[in-house]
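Subgroup meeting minutes
Present: P.N., E.W., G.H.
Scribe: E.W.

1. P.N. recapped why we're keeping a running log of single-chain structure predictions: easier to compare across weeks, and new members can see raw inputs and outputs side by side.
2. G.H. added today's entry (192 aa).
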Amino acid sequence: MTVNMTKGQKISLQKSDGGSLTAVRMGLGWQAAPRRGLFGSRTREIDLDASAVLFAGKQPVDVVFFQHLVSDDGSVRHTGDNLVGGAGQGGDDEAILVDLQRVPVHVDQIVFTVNSFTGQTFQEVQNAFCRLVDETNGQELARYTLTGGGNYTAQIMAKVQRSGDGWSMTAIGSPANGRTFQDLMPAIVPAL
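Output recorded in log:
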């Protein structure tokens, strides 16, 4: 059963049978919003990028994004860059796989971001979502929908963090501006 998350909501990532999740996929999907023009409506390609920043305390220790597809320890992996989107409410346009059992013990939070590499604002994006999937069985656990567009080029989407013996997820949903995860670091720190 999927939990539709709201901004700031936190959920446990314990399985319904009491076990802990071992591998999750953070999926990102979007579509370009149609624009009305002189000759009707049309869309233009929008390149959104998903990133995962690994933190030990408040210090970034690794990142996974389109130019660094696998974390240094191999526990987090990006499936590849999608330059145009299109899945919208269907499948994932970009995905980041996290093997929670392999995440080094000093890493206590992983923050997921999305940014418009080509600089379009979220006013030009529709049907954008971030979702967490149990990678062992394909079950969607949580979904956070980007609603309302906005005059910004990035979003601090969500984070997974160690919680006792397991992990929890928090939907952050904070708008930001920047073309890459590096530009977003000042906006990420308050969410830790």
